[in-house]
Every structure is written in C-alpha cells, then in structure tokens.
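Section 5.1 Outputs to date
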Amino acid sequence: MKDFCFRRFAEVLDVMENPNIFGLHENGAIASLQRESQDLLEPLVSMQPTAAGGSSGTTDELVISVVDTLLSQLKSRIVLDEDSLSHLVSAKLCSRSTSTQVAKAIVHPLRPSKRDVVEKVHPFTTFILLEAHRFNALRTTVLEHLQELKRAIRGEVLMSEFLESLYNNVVFSRVPPVWVSASYPTLKPLGAWVSDLKLRMEFISSWLSRGHGLGNEGASSSLGMEPLQSYWLGGLFFPQGFLTAVLQAHSRAHDLPVDSLTLKTTVMKIESGANVRKGPEEGVYVHGLFLDGGRWDRSKQCLEESAKGKLYSELPVVWFRPVVDGRRTTTSDAETVYECPLYRTTSRAGTLSTTGRSTNYVTSVDLVLSSYTNSDFWIRRGTALVCDLPY
C-alpha cells in the first residue's frame, strides 16, 4: 500500500521543476532545454558519415560552395600602411616629416626603437592599431586554411588530418578549434561567425578611415581628436583594453594617476548607437550590449523581468565615464543599483587572468533597480550582460 501511494505521489509531480523554485525566471527552463537538446544532438550529428575528397562528390561540392561563400565575405582586409596613416596624422597633428615617423611607429608599435614615439600617441590610437593587427592576422589564418582545403578537395594537395578535421567542421557548420584559438571568444556557428568577423573588421576600418581617435595627449578632449559618437564594445577583439584606454586618455588629459580612476556607468535614453548624434564630453558611449536574465524597461528606466520566451534583450546606449573616486557607487546608490557583470559570451566562462578575474569578464554596469526588487533578486536570477550572442 505504501509503494502504491508513493507511485501515485510521484506520478503527479512535474516532469521538470518550476524554475521559480530556484529563484529563476520561467525563461530559465527554455534555456536549460535548449542546452540539453544541443548536448544531445551534437554527438549524433558528429557521427554522421562524411568523406573528404574524391569519392564524396555531393558533400565535396557542398563544402566548396560553403568555402567560396566564406572567402567572398573576407575579401577586404583592414588597410594598415604608413602612407594612409601618415596622411591621417599629418592632417590633424603635425608636420609631414614628423607624421611619417609617427605612422611608422604605430604600424610597428612593438619595435624598441619606436617606443619613445609610441608613448606620445593617444591611447586610442595604440589600441585601434593593435586591434587592426589582430583582425588582419585572424583573417589571414582563415583565408589560408580555406584555400588549402579547396586545393585538397580538388586533389591538388594531400588531404592531411588537419584538413580533414577542417572539412568536417565546415560540413557541420562549426568554427574549427584552430580558428577559435586565434579568435576572440564566441559561441556562434561557422556562417554567423564569419559574418560577424566581417562586421567587426568593417567597424575597425571605419574607425581608422575617419581618423577618429588619432589624437595626442595634448588634445583638448580627453579622447583626442574627433572621437566616435558611440563605440561597439562587443565588436572589439579585446574590449577590456578599450576600457583601459578610456581611463588612460582621461588620466593624461587631466594629469591624474590612472590607478585612481574607475568607470562609472549610466544607461542612457538613447535606443542604439545609430541614434547618437554627439558623444559625451567625458568618457564614451557604448552600444551593442545584451541583457541575459532580464530586460531594460524604456519607460521606467529600470531593470525589469524578461519578457516570456525572449531570452536576450538589447540594452540602450551606456555611458562609461571615468571618475576619480575609487568607488563605483555611493552608499545610497548601492540599494537602488544592481552591479550587473558584463561578459564577452553567454557561457560566462573563461580562464583566470593575471588580474585574478576571468578572461570572459569585462566589467560591471550599474543598472537601476525596479521598486519591488533588490540586488539579491537579480543575483538569484543569474542576470548578466553579454557582448556577443550565440547566433
């Protein structure tokens, strides 16, 4: 009788626990089921038969078609030469002879003989040049591997174990591990990853071609000459370095120790980066951040519960402003503001860096709380900001 009662009790229980039991939103169940489905299907898909080269005409044609599409998306590199940069610098900063020396230094920033020149360049200039080098190096790696794969499929070179692995990753639309190791953190599938890489390179090229940020430490603005109105933080290879450059620029402009500065954040009433008409006097506007586990109420200007079935929602433009006080929030702010962590990807996982923090963690953004919640509520919800979505 006891066994019968136990079975009857077990039968009426929910197959899946309600997320509210754990302090989560109901969207947490959707995210969990998606992750379980992915974990189940990925091994099944990877066991599907594939053959690289000769005998698998249909699959080979598909791979070559995909490779050609990927190659067409990465035709343009970020132009990075002394002539173009010296033109930008000379037009804004100094004489032609001096600008050529500066241009050579920032194209080759790591040469010991140029370090004294580089130290005179605005932090944004150094940062954007290093970003351009990283993206160009990644693009070169991708192009070389794709072209070699095409040759192997056509029988012009031997299909090595590496190329066969690359072949299989293209078939299953996965980013090859060798590209992941040379890339910024991402969870996107192959096609979306290449499209995203193209957009990032276009953003960097646009920044360089306009000469934005190519200022010096003597410029009137803390960001140098003609800063961008808003910056796509998620489109950068190393967003932590960008925020450090913001602090360094402010430090130079106001003759302050950089270690005495911190970034205060404010969510603006500007919907997106395209709507920004003028940048701030101090600091920078940043766009392209997404809330995971919550949403921003545009009318109330505060953090609210996620809409049902919508896992991610875009945050309006955020103002990152350097302040002298080492504390990001005052005592009164602490009760009305949630220090929301900002991660590079939705996995929120990285390796431990020399700073003692995860490489996936960027910074924290202050989000105004709604009247019926506190910080503990959103911590239990697992609410965070991310720079890059997994699709």
